[in-house]
TrEMBL record:
Belongs to the UDP-glycosyltransferase family. Its EC number is 2.4.1.85. The keyword Glycosyltransferase applies. This is Putative cyanohydrin beta-glucosyltransferase. It comes from the Eukaryota. It is an enzyme of class 2 (transferase).
């Protein structure tokens, strides 16, 4: 995020207040908590990221074994 040199203090103050106290801020915090929950589920054992990493490791090991068997 870039802030131009023409940004006024009161504009920044208004936006920060909206994020901290306003509806946009509440919505953002709600969304963040949902993403946090989803991320924890994904990396937990049997979560999607855990499963995908397990598949990747198994594929790499299988290719390594196949490569050695062909030698």
């Amino acid at each position: 995020m870039e802030i131009g040199s023409d940004v006024k203090r009161d504009e920044v103050q208004k936006l920060v207040k909206e994020i901290m106290e306003g509806e946009k801020g509440k919505t953002m915090r709600k969304n963040i908590l949902e993403w946090k929950k989803l991320a924890k589920e994904a990396i937990a054992q049997h979560g999607s990221s855990f499963k995908n990493l397990d598949i990747l490791v198994n594929q790499v090991l299988l290719r390594k074994r196949e490569g050695r068997a062909g030698v």
